[in-house]
Amino acid sequence: MEPLLSCENVSFSYENTAVIKNLSFHVNSGDYLCIVGENGSGKSTLTKGLLGLKAPAEGKIIRGSDLHGNEIGYLPQQNPAQKDFPASVFEVVLSGRLNSRRFRPFYSKEDKKIARENLKKLGIEDLIKRSYRDLSGGQQQRVLLARALCAGSKLLFLDEPVTGLDPIVTEEMYKLILELNRKEKITIIMVSHDIKASVLYATHILHLNFDKSFFGRTEDYIKSPMGKYFFSE
Amino acid sequence: MFNFAEMFQYSFMLRALIGGILISLCAALLGVSLVLKRYSMIGDGLSHVGFGALAIGSAANFSPLEFSIPIVILSAFFLLRISENSKIKGDAAIALISTSALAIGITAASLSGVNTDIDNYLFGSILSLSRSDLVICIIVFIVVMILFILFYNKIFAVTFDESFAKANGTRVGIYNMLIALLTALTIVIGMKLMGTLLISSLIIFPAIISMRICRRFKTVIIMSSIVSVVGFFAGLVISYNRSTPAGASVVLVNLAMLIVFYVIGTVSDKIKAKKFLKQ
Lengths: 233, 279
Hints:
The complex is a heterodimer.
Chain A: E1 5-14, E2 17-27, E3 32-36, H1 43-50, E4 58-63, E5 72-75, H2 89-94, H3 109-121, H4 137-151, E6 155-159, H5 167-182, E7 187-191, H6 195-201, E8 204-207, E9 214-217, H7 218-223, H8 225-231
Parallel strand pairs in A: 3-7, 3-8, 5-6, 6-7
Antiparallel strand pairs in A: 1-2, 1-4, 8-9
Helix pairs in contact in A: 3-4
Chain B: H1 4-7, H2 11-36, H3 40-59, H4 64-84, H5 90-111, H6 116-123, H7 131-150, H8 152-160, H9 162-167, H10 172-194, H11 199-213, H12 217-242, H13 246-278
Helix pairs in contact in B: 2-7, 2-10, 2-11, 2-12, 3-4, 3-5, 3-6, 3-10, 3-11, 4-5, 4-10, 6-10, 7-10, 11-12, 11-13, 12-13
């Protein structure tokens, strides 16, 4: 099977310092990959690379043939300015359809239908007329997840999706993501600093550590020296 | 009752009214995006650069508008760059540029002999809008309207979430530049009416006022257009009636509206909270 996304001997530098060296991994359709690593290990640089916003210094990032140009559902880290943004939930979710618009300036009925379907899929169709700024943190993340699904439903790229959520809502968010992966067969790539939760849900782990990064199945990660180090306590 | 017909029998008043309303509408549309992106200070910085350029322009006997428009547009791109670059503190850099431009302008003006124009540029004058200025107003208005409607959805996406828009292949930089360019044009032209020191109020007030009670992006845009037109019209009428400076009167009307909307917003929030508790 052709991988959905693969990295071959990729190196990235940030402000003229190499942060990732000689990294290779691949993501197959249906995988759930967690990218973990300490602060400064290059998680956000790699994120930019995988989204096609930054070219690697060396190596290649290859997108599979059934993953078209912009068909990645991306859930960025929340920015603080967004929390009190005056926009309705529907306006936010619909903006996920922007990449399918190309040069047509307005959304079609089809776009609106897809937006409604994704709200339903995440169980938040009753929020459709609410204002984004009146929602709780967990609800806001669900809305942004619905928007990501509108942009692309093959691969979801989640950048620290539970930051700032309380433990109960965090748990719900993880379950929702797992459900999307298992039931809807959506491939997940999640950047996380929560190694314990990553091991619990992901099928694969990529632990960034300069030129000694680990990539493999979760059960192998737990047995690896790196995994043992984190789970010895 | 006050006689509107008498007020607008003067052609300069009519020009000020039409030009002012068109500029207010442009400022209101762009203002929502600027305020939400935390770029409000760019508007303020640009108006000071505009003043510097106008002062140098009139000291050197260039046509002031044609000289200052390209300079302000260039500074708009520059200020945008500074704000996007996290290494330099954007707000401090804007303050440096604003005060420097103001100082250069005042020095240029005093070296070339005392110029009554300078006072008009600082505080605005409703007498100052010439027929050709009005034509520029109309052109800028049409351009802003068409681009805003055509790119409305993109502007929303870029305003709400740049990283998401970027990841989905939207060329965020171009839309930011578009907004900066249109803002620069609006400010240079609006300065003649409102004055350097007050023009940024047209950008900021309507957006803040409408955000207090509106909860959807589209209604915020519509409400701030209405607020800006009402504010300008009422300000102009008061200015004519009481012989107060036009720019200052418009700002004071906006301030009054801000207070009223805040009270309404707070009361309606409290009522909602009570309803919620009863459920």
